[in-house]
Amino acid sequence: MFGIFFGAGNLIFPPTLGAMSGKNFWPAISGFVLSGVGIAILTLIIGALNPKGYVYEISKKISPWFATSYLVALYLAIGPFFAIPRTATTSYEVGIAPLLPSNMTGLGLIIFTILYFVSAYLISLNPSKILDRIGRILTPVFAILIIILIILGVIKYGATVPQIASAEYAKAAFGSGFLEGYNTLDALASVAFSVIAVQTLNQLGFANKKSIFRLFGLLEWWWHLGLVRCILDWLS
């Protein structure tokens, strides 16, 4: 699930938040974690405990037309309108664009985008193996790269005095961080990914509500522990 959720927003928003929030980092990152992680986990829990899915639940509790409209808008937001293009452009801007001359960036983006989405299409041709490939290959790669990024950041900027917080973070650090966490789109994506979560949990032996509650309860406990730690560090 980490490999599925980890996207462009998770890569670019936290460092930007750290730079823009300055000394208000802890309340800002607390808001970010609350919306970017907490709401996503809560949505997964609700989806995992409702085997008939969000379409049925929303149709039953509100109306069928609202369920259809909401889910269409949601899938467009986490798909072709925002999230999918962002994955390609972020990868290009971070990994490829700095290596190209300025007059080649436009053409480079076109070529990279074509290759990127052709590769994604070829991988998705075999849906049954996507989870295995993400879990066994991409997730360890993501974890290693994140660790390297953190280590390099500490080595290069660890002794740097935090810059003055921007106006929005100086005025409302927690709220600004909360909005940035929501902008990762993980809260919305978890509605779609809850189907995958249910299938994965069943494969791992979590077939009833009691076992699912126990698993997510442990994850939520760790999340609350991390949030409390952030708040205590901020207060100190």
TrEMBL record:
Lipid bilayer topology: Multi-pass membrane protein
Single GO term (MF): L-valine transmembrane transporter activity
Pfam families in UniProt: Branch_AA_trans
Keywords: Amino-acid transport, Cell membrane, Membrane, Transmembrane, Transmembrane helix, Transport
Annotated GO CC locations: plasma membrane
A Gene Ontology biological process term: isoleucine transport
Domain of life, per lineage: Bacteria
Transmembrane region(s): 28-50, 62-84, 104-125, 137-159, 187-206
InterPro entries tied to this protein: Brnchd-chn_aa_trnsp_Livcs (IPR004685)
Intracellular or extracellular location(s): Cell membrane
Family according to the record: Belongs to the branched chain amino acid transporter family.
Functional description taken from the UniProt entry: Component of the transport system for branched-chain amino acids.
Name assigned to this protein: Branched-chain amino acid transport system carrier protein
